[in-house]
Amino acid sequence: MSGTIKHEILKKLQHAGTEPTSGQALADQLSVSRTAIWKYIKQLEADGYSFETIHKKGYILKNEPNLIDAARIKAALDTPTFGQAIHYFDTLPSTQPVAHQLAQEGAAAGTVVICEEQTAGRGRMQRQWVSQKGKGIWMSVILRPDVPPYEAPQFTLVAAVAIVKAIEDVVGISPKIKWPNDLLIDSLKITGILTELQADPDYVNALIMGLGINVNHMADDFPDDIKDIATSLKIQSGKEIDRAHLVARILYYLEFYSDKYVAEGFIPIKKEWENYSCTIGQKIKVTTVKEVFHGVAVGITNDGVLKVQLPDGETKSVYSADIEL
Ligand code: BTN
């Protein structure tokens, strides 16, 4: 409860902008004492927020730390379920195992594990995922859709659409989706999605959706081995992005589109995916665990499976692979 009141105070002061809000008004609206409000303000100051206190008028929020802590995300949040539980860390090896553990312990759908820095971030195919401190969004979201396990890969495509929408809203640019899990701007990688499953043969217990988004990196922040293939929203837009605001928007669309998937299936979302895709119609190189081949990506099925036409005219279905354009 105390966490919630702290977030509510922050939200109200954010909305008030340069207008002071009195401690009494906050106390009345949140049904707590003025002393309690004062204590929460002190807690927020200890978290790095600063306030101007105007005699007899109240508080004005002056500065917010550029963190993705629970208080800042919740102040921007507009969802019934996703993001209601947020586990925030300064540094973690990776958010994925923490989210797996929480899911096994019964954490609710929409629970978020998020951190400023990962020291052993992981991508698909056992690759490393570079996650510098304070630059990006490194988070895992627990989903509990009522679907059979074979539908789980479609959630990677659902998440891709959700993140594109959020970036459009917050940053004003529109990334392209490279099947199955990359978002690109100018052919450079901005986002990777890692969908992992906790399932019985016929039932999904949880999907652990790992999202890595390069947000406020400058070109020099990327190590040499990825600087020619990666970019950030700041490099692309020329502006510093409020990461907490972007997280809140991603959670909004993730909840919206995963609910839509469960209610209506993939077909309505597929149309949106196709609008953002940079894969369809392209000559591609496909690398699966078993083989490497070239062809033209002709489309995705109603289940999100990639269709690739080979040089001899045969069409192959690709369920899981790395592709190069
Ligand atoms: C990929 O493109 O290969 C997927 C990258 C996924 C990275 C995210 S960052 C948050 C979560 N924790 C991890 O260790 N990985 C995912």
From TrEMBL:
In what residue span(s) does the BPL/LPL catalytic domain sit? 71-262
Q: Is Ligase there in the keyword field?
A: yes
Citing just one GO molecular function, the answer is: transferase activity
Enzymatic reactions: biotin + L-lysyl-[protein] + ATP = N(6)-biotinyl-L-lysyl-[protein] + AMP + diphosphate + H(+)
Instruction: List residues binding biotin.
Output: 118, 122-124, 189
Offer a single GO CC term for the protein.
cytoplasm
Record-linked NCBIfam families: birA_ligase
- What family is reported? Belongs to the biotin--protein ligase family.
Output this protein's name.
Answer: Bifunctional ligase/repressor BirA
Q: Which organism is it from?
A: Kurthia sibirica
UniProt gene name: birA
